[in-house]
Structures are given as C-alpha cells and as structure tokens.
Design goal:
The complex is a heterodimer. Chain A has one domain. Chain A starts with 11 loop residues before the first strand and ends with a strand. The longest helix of chain A is centred in the N-terminal third of the chain and has 8 residues. Chain A is built from one helix and nine strands, in the order E-H-E-E-E-E-E-E-E-E. By secondary structure, chain B is an alpha+beta fold. In chain B, 61% of the residues are buried. The mean pLDDT of chain B is 94. Classes of the chains: A mainly beta, B alpha+beta. Strand 1 of chain A pairs parallel with strand 6 of chain B, so a sheet runs across the interface. Bound molecules: zinc ion. The site of zinc ion (ZN) has 8 residues of chain A, from loops.
Chain lengths: 146, 393
C-alpha cells in the first residue's frame, strides 16, 4: 500500500523563488502548520502574501497553529487530468477552514474511502504526509475526519 | 442611472463566425480562422475590412492586432486591448472595452474577436505536466486540483450546500443548451439531443459535475464589430446597442488557495448591480439570457447573482420549460451555447445575443428587445453586458 494518498508522480511543490513561503514548506516537513499573521493588526492570511491585505503592513509573521479545521467545501474528481492519476479512480479534495487561524482556508485530500459521504461542517485534523524520497523532499498536509 | 455611462453610445453592427469544428479538426490555422471570422463580420455589417481600426480580445489570444491589421491591409491601427484574466471571463469585457474605445474616440470601428484552435496548442482542462510547481499551484496541484473544473467545483459545492440545490438544476441548464442546439445547424451537437436519462447516466468528471455539465473543446473563431450608435443606425443590420458593460470581481476574489471572501459565488455579486445601474435596466426587463457555460454550476450561480432567481429558489426556477425559447420565462443560451453549439470562449453567445436583438435567432424569443450576456462565471475576473434594440434607447 502506497503511503501517500495520491499516486507517485504528482507535481512536486517547491517554495517560491523569492522565499515568501519557505517557512510554510519547512514547517510541514517537521509536522507543523505555519500560517501568516499580521504583526500590526492581527489579521490571519492565507495563501502567503508579502503584505497584510487588511492594513497593508509589511510586518507579516509566521505563526504555528493547531492543525485542526472544519470542512468548508469539497469535490470528488473522477476524470484524470494528470498522467499519474490515470486509472486511479476518484479522490476527494476538501477545502478546510482553520478555526485557530481566523478561518483561512487550505486545500488537501480527505483521507479514507474515496467514495465516502463528505459532510460540510465536519471537524477534521491534519495528517502530515511525508515525501522524503522526492527531489526535493516535501510534506503535504492531508485531512481526516475526527 | 449613472451620469457616466456607456449606455446607447455604441452598437454591435456586425457579427461573424467560422464553421465550428470539433477539437483538433480545423483545416485552418488559428490565425486564418480569426481572419475568416472578421471577414464574415465585415460582410454581415456591410463594410470593408479596411474600415476596421481597432481590436480587442481576452484570455491571452495568440493573434496579435498588428498581425491582423497587416493581413487585412488596414491603413491605420488606432486601438488594441487585451483583457487580463484566463478563461472566458473577459468576453463581455472585450465588447465593453471596444465600446469604450469607440465612445471616447480612440477608434471608430473596433473588432472584438476570439480564435481557438486548441489542437494546435496546449488544451484547456489538461493538468500541466510540469514535474514541480510553486506559488498558488503548489497548494493545489499535488492534491489533484489541476483543471479548471477542479479549481471551481468547490465554489458551487458550497453554494449548493448553503441553498439546498438539487442536481436537477444542473441537468436543466445542460438540457436547455442541447435543446436549443437541435434547431441550430451550426451547432456541433446538432442532431445530438440530450435526454434526462442520458444526462443522469453520464459519468462524473468531478462531483458535482457530470460529463454534460462541462463545455466542449472546439476549434473556430468569432468576431463582433463595434461602431458608434450614430454610425450603426444607418448600416445594413439592425443595431444591437450596448446599454451597459461591467468587468471585475469582488473583495479578494483572486486571493490564493481559494480564500476569496465571497467564495460560494460566480464572482458577479458586485458587478451585476453596477450593470443594471449603468444600463437603466432591471432583471425583469431582460428578454433573453446568454450565460457562459464553462460548467453548468457557473451558469446557476451567475443567473442567481444577476437577480433572475433567489438563491433559495433554484430548484423551482431551473426547470427546463422555464429555460427554453420561445415560451420559457427566462430563455437561456438559445444557440446551444458553449455546451452544445461551440466552445468559442463565449463569443458565440455574444453573437447569439445580437441575433436575438435583430430577430434572427433559430430559437427566436418573440419581441426580444433586451439581451444580457454573462461571461466566464467563477473565474477571478468576470464581465457581463446588456444590449438592446433601438426601442430601448
Ligand atoms: Zn494588518
């Protein structure tokens, strides 16, 4: 059994050239979830930006947050659009609100039976999925219903 | 009505399109398709191609205005404009930008065009095969969120959850397009009707969408000629006057990783009120609706956001009988649209709106004076336009 939810060969995420999201990708390899927070007004922000969308401050910090959330929306792709997904069958993508980070949203797969019923509002927790043999190595943030 | 408005200052005076082909089957190059569509629009308008002095397009169309102007032998190119944003969100904006250029005197005769020969280039709907991804894609592609549908389906899933929308709503939208295409010999799906059973039996592409919820991929080109209202009045065809045109999106619509403030939306919430204010029209004044079907889910939300249906009434409103010309309450996509006529990135729907105003549609709505055209729902930069007959001025 594969240790990753989707087959090997999916695109490998790499940090941005300008270093904006290096903190996030380093943290996922440690099993931690880091999200942007404005040092001036306290606004949580995701995805990463160079300035705060609320007060335009450049003082953006990275905060470790409890990897817990709520399913805000979901989809179940069946038709493969990437060679690695050919003949794989359906999989579930969830959009998760992080309730400890101002309800910013993050995308991941919902672990377990790909045919399961998905209920918006369900509480989920993160499962860090290491890809240590990839070049470069990385970790994804997946979700399971609690 | 606002003081600063485009209302009634310009009109679409000519429309043209090539034969619509299935994806990869065009015998012509994309450039030749565009030129043929422009020539057809000139013929329709009764003008020489040399009268054209401007071009607008969208979605990074590959056919540059200087190349077109040289090929057509245009004496002086005075205006060109590309609307940012992928997908078909810019099609009504291309019309609006052309109208603005004419209204303020940059140019006199502007063509809004789109050419697509996807077989000759990378196709839409296919995940990028790049081995590594960064930026926004790094938070989506590794999880299998790669295609346009996969990027937008969750907006609709949340909308359908919030408003308890039944899947039959999507089926009715798809069937309306296929129904209209059966009277349209230009349609790629002419003689290929869609029954409720055939829809229900079709495979999932990405839940909540089945095969027949998704647009085709096609080759072809289309063009609209925009001139001043005074000029259009005496030309060959009845003019379709542009009454209002809007583009854009609301708060942080393009925020990375699906963090738009108004997520369960087709991106029109703030645009539609501006469109009605500018045009001096209300939803109940609109006789016929052309609403870009990248996917039926986008049509559903766009029709709601343009005020034709309360979000909580979708299940009652989106019934096939309500959506079909000539007698439906809100005739929708009367040429067959992107689903069943041709995926010409929505420009075919603009042309159909013009036909309705002229009384030339194969699915004519009786006495259609006002048509709305809604472009590219769910993408992060969308647009819509209202056009009307001379009676609306
Ligand atoms: Zn701030």
């Amino acid at each position: 059994m594969s240790k990753s939810y989707l087959p090997e060969g999916m695109p490998i995420p790499i940090p941005m050239d300008d270093g904006l999201d290096t903190s996030y990708w380093e943290a996922t390899r440690r099993g931690e979830l880091m999200i942007q927070k404005c040092a001036d007004c306290g606004t949580w922000q995701w995805g990463p930006e160079w300035l705060c969308h609320n007060c335009q401050s450049l003082k953006i910090t990275w905060k470790k947050v409890a990897p817990e959330g709520t399913i805000y929306s979901w989809e179940r792709p069946w038709h493969p659009v990437h060679p690695a997904l050919k003949d794989h069958g359906p999989y579930i993508v969830v959009l998760v609100e992080l309730r400890h980070a101002g309800n910013v949203r993050m995308i991941g797969n919902l672990l377990g039976d790909p045919h399961q019923d998905v209920i918006i509002g369900s509480k989920v927790e993160a499962v860090f999925e290491p890809h240590d043999d990839a070049d470069p190595p990385y970790a994804l943030v997946q979700w399971k219903v609690v | 009505m606002r003081e600063r408005t485009i209302r009634g200052k310009t009109a679409i005076a000519g429309v043209g399109e090539t034969t619509y082909y299935k994806h990869g089957q065009s015998p012509d190059s994309e450039l030749v398709l565009v030129l043929k569509a422009i020539l057809a629009a000139c013929e329709d308008a009764g003008i020489s191609p040399k009268e054209i002095d401007g071009f607008t397009s969208y979605s990074n169309d590959r056919n540059e205005p200087t190349r077109l102007a040289a090929a057509l032998g245009i004496d002086e190119l005075r205006f060109s404009n590309m609307n940012w944003g992928g997908g078909g969100g810019g099609v009504a904006a291309a019309i609006g930008n052309a109208a603005a250029a004419v209204a303020c005197g940059y140019a006199d005769c502007v063509v809004a065009f789109r050419g697509l020969a996807q077989g000759q280039f990378r196709r839409f709907g296919q995940g990028a095969p790049d081995p590594t991804v960064s930026g926004d894609a790094a938070y989506m592609s590794p999880y299998g969120v790669l295609s346009p549908l996969q990027k937008y389906a969750m907006r609709a899933m949340r909308f359908m959850h919030d408003h308890k929308v039944d899947h039959r709503v999507l089926r009715a939208i798809s069937m309306a397009s296929y129904n209209h295409a059966q009277n349209n010999p230009r349609a790629v799906m002419y003689n290929r009707p869609l029954s409720a059973e055939k829809y229900d039996d079709s495979r999932w592409i990405a839940e909540p969408c089945r095969l027949f919820d998704c647009c085709q991929e096609n080759d072809g080109a289309a063009a609209c000629i925009i001139v001043s209202a005074e000029t259009a009045k005496d030309m060959k065809q009845p003019a379709a006057y542009i009454l209002g045109a809007v583009q854009g999106s609301d708060h942080r619509c393009g925020a990375p990783v699906m963090n738009a403030s108004n997520f369960a939306s087709s991106s029109f919430a703030s645009l539609a009120p501006r469109l009605y204010e500018m045009s001096g029209m209300k939803p109940q004044d609109v006789d016929v609706v052309q609403s870009y079907e990248n996917f039926t889910i986008g049509v559903m939300m766009a029709v709601v956001e343009h005020g034709f249906c309360d979000p909580d009434d979708c299940n009652e409103f989106f019934q096939i009988d309500n959506l079909v010309a000539p007698n439906g309450k809100m005739p929708l996509n009367t040429s067959g649209g992107n689903l069943a006529e041709c995926y010409m990135h929505g420009l075919g729907l603009q042309i159909e709106a013009v036909r309705q105003i002229r009384g030339q549609s194969v699915n004519q709505v009786p006495d259609a004076d006002v048509a709305i055209n809604i472009a590219g729902p769910m993408v992060h930069h969308v647009s819509s336009v209202i056009m009307g007959s001379e009676a609306t001025l």
